[in-house]
Description:
Elements: E1 3-6, H1 10-22, E2 26-32, H2 39-43, E3 46-51, H3 62-72, E4 76-78, H4 88-96, E5 100-101, H5 106-112, H6 115-123, H7 140-150, E6 154-158, E7 167-170, H8 173-191, E8 196-200, E9 206-214, E10 220-232, E11 235-241, H9 248-263, E12 269-277, E13 283-289, H10 296-303, H11 307-315, E14 332-339, E15 341-342, E16 348-349, E17 356-358, E18 365-369, E19 384-392, H12 395-408, E20 410-412, H13 418-426, H14 428-432, H15 439-443, H16 447-469, H17 473-489
Parallel strand pairs: 1-2, 1-4, 2-3, 4-5
Antiparallel strand pairs: 6-7, 6-8, 9-10, 9-12, 10-11, 11-14, 12-13, 14-19, 15-16, 17-20, 18-19
Amino acid sequence: MKKILVANRGEIALRIMRSAKEMGIKTVAVFSEADRNALHVRYADEAICLGEAASTASYLNIQKVIDACKLTGAEAIHPGYGFLSENPDFARKVKAAGIILIGPSPEAMEIMGNKLSAKAAALKYQIPLVPGTEEAITNIEQAKERATSIGFPVLIKAAAGGGGKGMRLVHQVEDFEEQMKLAISEAESAFGDGAVFIEKYVTSPRHIEIQVLGDQHGNIVHLFERECSVQRRHQKVVEEAPSAVLDEATRAKMGKCAVDVARSVNYTGAGTVEFILDADKNFFFLEMNTRLQVEHPVTEMITGVDLVKEQIKIARGEVLSFSQDDLSIRGHAIELRVYAEDPANNFLPDIGTLKTYKTPKGIGVRVDDGFEQGMEIPIYYDPMIAKLVTYGKNREEAIERMLRAIEEYQISGIETTLPFGSFVMQHEAFISGNFDTHFVAKYFKPDVLKQQNNEEERIAAILAYRLFTKSSIQNLVAAGQQTSNWLRNRRNW
Length: 493
Ligand code: ADP
């Protein structure tokens, strides 16, 4: 494999190209007209414009991606995450064109792409499932009966769902019919497939997922867990590895189940098996993502494994160079997704120009991003600017480091999730590890950030006044002291 095409954009395209470069593999970028000056385009050895900004005209256009591959003579395609990464039709067409897809087989993608067929596959290995219906539900009366026997609250989920979409929480039987109709129409419009099913709503749920790697020779290993319970709109914002609450026995059990789920579809490549953990540490299989996850860096930090390199080696037909016993957890890693969103305004996207953009540096800090100062965040795609990852010898150090890195990170021109990240890192529930997927709803009140801003302004005003009126060495020292006291106190959320 001498050249690969990366069918993606932004931070993930760059992240993949970096590993390819280290392996001596040339890279081809594809881009839309909105991304003409994007960093991934500059980084690649060659770049091909796919078309207009809209994803359907560019990054989602299967034929154009395949044509770009043929034109440049790339032997393989890495799809990254999102876009075409979990599309079995794309995987089949790539194969038919004689190109290697760096990912699992189209069959595995197809089965795991649907939450119901995924559950059916998992059942072959007696993997625990959330109580619910194992088939799509169509008849409202029967569905109501099932929901009542499962016990409210229940979730109505789209079988083809993803990204937190097509999910409705129902607390009582009276609301069921209306919510089911809404769920079906939402599923139809978002996924072109109206099939829905019911799941018991696990109270106090934690989202814990296991990274797996499988080669083409039947070897499958897991690379431990990632905890992704800090979510807004059922979507992750803060992830960490390992989880603060898993004991060795549960970790080993979940790891084994994840490997079995992967085995049920002869999985090859990197994949993630998602579970939900209840308050009593019972875990249930949710779904499998047949691609590299956004949050994969935390696993890389604690295992020392470059997952992209492993994906490429597997696609080349190599045997995994390590066994389960060779893998262990070292230290702790946390990721904050830095989104162009306003946490004080319900996390709504806040698109614009990055007037200031300076990333944090130093020991234990990794920033995977796709932007430079002065660049605009395009409105056409996901508003993630960067992934800020910190690594420490233990959880405490990773948290401290994240706080330090957030303070160093300078972004102006748009609102971001950085202040939210600092809120999370200082919150007693997060620090103690005693939290679930309701963290944001329970604790995060936008006013908290406003208070922080006011306090920041007040301190800045005091310091400016002092420096201006009596600029002596002593006053400078006092001002510095005051700032550090203030920074320390600020952590008492
Ligand atoms: P998607 O594919 O849309 O991401 P998932 O099934 O992976 O949907 O669920 C996304 C999130 O929704 C989970 O991380 C969890 O927070 C919540 N969730 C899903 N299923 C349940 C459940 N049965 N009980 C409680 N929370 C759930």
